[in-house]
Amino acid sequence: MTLLTPDAKGVFVISVTPFTDSGAIDFDSLDRVVDFYFEKGADGLTILGMMGEAQKLTQAESRAVAQRVIKRAGGRPIVVGVSAPGLAAIGELGKAVMDMGAAGCMVTTPGSLKTDPQIHAYFAQVAATLGQDVPIVLQDFPLSTGVHISDEVLGRIIDDVAQVVMLKHEDWPGLAKITKLRAAEAAGRRRISILCGNGGIFLPEEIARGANGAMTGFGFPEMLSDVVRLASAGDMDRAQDIFDAYLPLVRYEQQPGAGLAVRKYVLAKRGAIASAALRSPGAGLAPAAIAEVERLLTRQDNRLKELN
Questions:
Q1: Is 106 marked as binding a ligand?
Q2: pLDDT for residue 198
Q3: Domain 10-239, CATH 1.10.10.10 — does that match?
Q4: What are phi and psi of 254, to 5 degrees?
Q5: Where are the beta strands (DSSP E) in 28-130?
Q6: Contact predicate 12/52, CB 8 Å
Q7: pLDDT computed for residue 163 by the predictor
Q8: CB 65 within 8 A of CB 19
Q9: Which of 47, 259, 284, 305 has the maximal Cβ count within 10 Å?
Q10: Residue 214: is its pLDDT beyond 80?
Q11: Which chain positions lie within coiled-coil regions (predicted)?
Q12: Where exactly are the structural domains of the chain?
């Protein structure tokens, strides 16, 4: 079992959860999309996140998905989202997936947290619930949770909760937060890994600020891998050229309520999953949106050919 460490880097793709048109979990497609992500350059995967429709699964289904993905990954690191309104549910699912061989657990803040002391105390409670040997990915996603973690509170969590080994950075705007974290580490604070989300829309800048990679999803995960690799090596111009070729589709995926449907449409078109279906409540793309995506895909393909 490979556990997450503060040195983790690269691309951990946020996996979709494939469903049949009737809404059942499509385990054959789950196998296929896991293989697809690794073939396209993923270093690890994150499952049961918000874009994995985790909120639509039962606890039993969540465990079944985790078990299938961890087995299929063949020892490559799998992070499992275990966020829940209560600590009991976090502890139950977290223990189950770690026993299966997960690399760590991702947890975000419930919307009920209103003050800095509450936020700080919450992650200490999560760490105690999961156990001292479980690596934690702290998902900082105020656009979704409504909870804003200040630089100061985040620093206190890093200082006080040793199990937090990675930040999933999704604050927006948040580039300055990366800079401050790395400056604090240079001054002696414990270093943690920083992987970035938000669909990768600021990925080149995030790597340049000191992030270690990406933890997000996209219909073309090879873009995430190429940009992280090139930017980390200092070839920012080439990284930006490749990123810019995909940027119109990245932007289109940012639409609230429609982005996952776009991503699943593209993955189905590429053969990674059998159906683009979302589990209810959730709808696929309308014909007008499909036409727009197809136009973006054609332009993207032409631009990539120009870049060779």
A1: no
A2: 94
A3: no
A4: -80, -5
A5: 44-47, 78-81, 104-108
A6: no
A7: 98
A8: no
A9: 47
A10: yes
A11: none
A12: 10-239
